[in-house]
Amino acid sequence: MDTGRIKCVLCNEGLVQKKTLFEYMGRNFSHEVPCCPKCGKVFIPPELAEGRMAEVEEQLEDK
Amino acid sequence: MKISSLGVVVHKTVSVCPVCLENIGASVVLRSDEYFFKKKCPEHGAFSTVVWRGKSPSYEQWGAGYTPRDVKSDCPRGCGLCSRHLQKTCCALVEVTRRCNLSCPICFAESISGHFASGSGKAAHSAHFGQLRDSGRNSTSKLGVQSSLNLPPDLSGGDAELPVGELFEIFKSLAAKGNTFVQLSGGEPTVRDDLPEIIAAARAAGCENIQLNSNGIRLGSEPLYTKKLKDAGLSFVFMQFDGTRDDAYLKLRGEALLDVKCAAIDICGENLIGVTLVPTVVPGVNDDNIGDIIKFGLERSPAVRGVHFQPVSYFGRYPHEPSNEDRITLPEILRAIEVQTNRKFSMSDFVPSACDHPRCGFHGDFVVLPGSRVMKLTKRASSSCCDDDDAHLKNRKFVARRWKRAEDVGKAVGKDADFQDMDTFLSRVKSHGFTITAMAFQDAYNLDLERLRRCSLHVAQGGRLIPFCANYLD
Q: How many Cβ atoms sit within 10 Å of the Cβ of residue B85?
């Protein structure tokens, strides 16, 4: 993904890939996601939400 | 709450008389940190069986969140999943033989020994088998439902076994109803040379997960046979594993079996067949070995996928009528896990059964990390409620995920790997997931019909699905 072409709606800055810590389903995970270099807000691409994050959710789902 | 002269009544339910199997009322009575299942048959007298020891966790805590239902049905009489049963089938057990290559003093299936051509040492063993004394119970069904609670006529003759074609029809019928997780059981299923064909038939019928219940003797002795099982579509093995010392096997199985168990794990590992170790925990035999069994399993991850403890139950064949000293309860196993692993695992890492009645078992979900570390995944708050309509499906997905070996064994990682990294975590949890679980089967002494009604492990028998503990009750 060419993250520089995606701009932050608040800062109008091009996003950069940055390793980011998530708290997800009660656990901490890190992953590189597009991030605004100015305000720090991140963009979760649909392919990440429907891919890796969905996989994590499935793995953490209890019986 | 009623205070009787013998303790505090904390729960009332329905059970059966262990002699005549007629339904009788039962109470769970707390006395000095022990919970007893008390009942009285008008004809055969009073019975008191310990069902829970200790208050950490307490009997009441472990069942918290579960809403008891009235037991007004006539179960287990005529049991074969009626509309009053409260849980759907998670796993269907199919008995493929009654023969076995062992003759254990304790056997829920009352398997028949000495019919295995490649077995050894059976002559010396048969003397021990002959010394087992009848517990005094009549061997014929007392429930008036002979066809549903005993083996079907074509298996009752001993050596007679359903041919592959007939088993295929059973698998097809199960799969058509969405029951795609089957356990092949016995007897010892590996005494059948055509077990690969049976597994292939289950696959062809639409079964997605095929579990083999085995003592591992043939798996550890015949690598080519084991490979054939994998090639036919075997998903994973539940392997009888009573301890890391041979004294447990000598006492419970009559033979020193540790070496062949280790060989079976290695051979299954080479074939990417996941192995879950299944110890029958017997007081004074192997209850001091619980921590070492877990350590043994962790050291053999990813070949070993977990440990499934089964507190000894007294149904089928057992050497004598059990006293309370012959029993170990779920909270004792939980505490033993904590103490014997030097608190590597704690009781809070485990939650009650969600797919069955909470007092039927527990489970904990882990990932084995390099350097003998474990990541703990089970969170008490996130555990699903046992009243979920799809609990059986959740459980089915969970066990398939954990007990199957990943075909891609995952990239090698050093002990300094960052397991917070999403990709590294996902790779590791798929390759090195590890479960510690337990299931307390019920016998005629401690059968609680409230628990029975929530059973999700069902034996396919005569076209019906019968809750496991009802099937082997007498």
A: 20
**CATH number of A3-60: 3.40.50, 1.20.120, 3.90.550, 3.10.20?**
3.10.20
Rg (CA), chain A: 13
Closest residue in A to B430 (Cα) is A59
* Mutation site for B-interface testing, chosen from A22, A27, A62 by largest number of B Cβ within 10 Å: A62
Q: Single out the residue of B251, B181, B191 nearest to residue B219, CA to CA.
A: B191
Q: What's the pLDDT at B409?
A: 63
With contacts defined as CB-CB under 8 Å, which chain B residues touch A62? 351, 354, 365, 378-379, 382-384, 394, 398
Per residue in B294-314, pLDDT (tens digit) is 999 999 999 999 999 999 999
Q: CB distance A63–B426 less than 8 Å? A: no
pTM of the predicted model as reported, rounded to 2 decimal places: 0.89
CA distance B172 to chain A (A): 26
Instruction: From chain B, pick out residues whose CB is under 8 angstroms from the CB of A31.
Output: 421-423
Give just the sign of the alpha carbon dihedral B245, B247, B248, B250.
Answer: positive
Question: Could you give phi then psi for residue B453, rounded to 5 degrees?
Answer: -70, -15
Enter the ipTM: 0.91
Q: How far apart are CA B403 and CA B396, in angstroms?
A: 11
